[in-house]
Amino acid sequence: MHWINRRDFIRKTALVGLGAASFGGASVLARPAVERRLVLLHTNDMHGRLDAFPMDGGKYQGMGGLEARASVIQQIRNEGHPVLLVDAGDFFQGTPYFNFFKGAPEIAAMTHMGYDAATPGSSDFSAGMENLATQWKLAGFPLLACNYGVAETPLENILLPYHIIVRENITIGVIGVGIDLKGRVPEGLIKGIEYRDPIKCVNETTNLLKKKGCDLVVCLSHLGDYYSDGKISDTILARENIGVDIIIGAHTHRFFQQPRRYVNKGNGDTLVSQMGWGGVQMGRIDYFFPKSGTNKTLKANRVDVDKKNAE
After folding, report:
1. With a cut of 50, which residues of the chain have pLDDT below it?
2. How far apart are CA 184 and CA 251, in angstroms?
3. CA 114 → CA 10, 69, 73, 157, 299, distances in Å?
4. pLDDT at 292
5. Of the candidates 205, 189, 188, 197, the residue with the CA atom closest to the CA atom of residue 149
6. Phi, psi of 202 (to 5 degrees)
7. C-alpha 127 chain-centroid distance
8. Apex CA 152: angle with CA 233 and CA 196, to 5°?
């Protein structure tokens, strides 16, 4: 698989402006003296929205867009703490840009912004597996889904179950998990993908990441927040997993005011967060790792993505 050189890409791209992040709804837990801090930034359900919402009196007018998002991300990086930047899927489909360019601008921009990992959503298969694979050959970050079997498909060796990232002595295991595509995507576009039990696959992968010494396990999920009919969702996964620290959700377009906390099967806490759709908000979670022991603490915020940040 070809990986683009991020520094070369940035020299050729000019999306980043300067600006200030807007924070709201902070929830701070008491924390001990720390030696390590990690800033987790997360997005989901962009649906091809490259531009800010138009100034037409709508609820999200002036919000979103690649320029403002890049500006906010850069401002947070400038704070000097290690950053992990992830997306939970449905970056494609939703505006005419996808009809013409098939997702290339989204992937180029996300690579430029320094995304570390993503999982595909159902909309990302809208032009078929071949297109998704083609776009990812130029991506600077991995595509993850532990419960999709893709042997002998165009996504073989492209779609991976997990990825391990090290940021200043903090080892993070990132897992991807996807929704059942049957009935959501035409069969011809996903032929050969084997859908597997999300809970079983996440638990198996979590076990592996724990054995590899990960300090934090992040699950990028496109399962959806909750369903009244009992279908597997982030709510169920949060309770049934054995050691995921946080599930970054998508698909159901929910704007979480704060991450929700669940007790998992490993008798630990699993948080769930989701940031709506269209790129109007980004989630920020600051993890603090103590000098001794393993009890992480955190501070969570929602970050408004507004075009004023790019001015």
Report:
1. 1-32
2. 12
3. 9, 12, 9, 21, 22
4. 64
5. 197
6. -65, -40
7. 21
8. 20
What is the structure's pLDDT at 290? 82
Longest dimension (CA), the chain: 55
For residue 283, the model assigns a pLDDT of: 97
Find all residues with CB under 8 Å of 292, minimum gap 6, and list them: none
According to the model, what pLDDT value does residue 31 have? 46
Give which of 37, 34, 31, 145 is closest to 87, Cα–Cα: 145
Q: What is the pLDDT of residue 309?
A: 64
How far CA 307 is from CA of 22, 67, 72, in Å, comes to 11, 7, 10
Positive or negative CA dihedral for 281, 71, 166, 87?
A: positive
What is 6-310's CATH topology? Purple Acid Phosphatase; chain A, domain 2 (3.60.21)
Under a CB-based contact definition with an 8 Å cutoff, are residues 6 and 111 in contact?
yes
Alpha carbon 142 to its chain's center: 11
State the number of CA atoms in the 13 A half-sphere of 163 facing the CB.
22
The distance in angstroms from the start CA to the end CA of the chain is: 37
Distance of CA 173 to the CA centre of its chain: 13
**22-40: pLDDT as tens digits:** 333 444 444 445 578 999 9
Domain ranges of the chain: 6-310
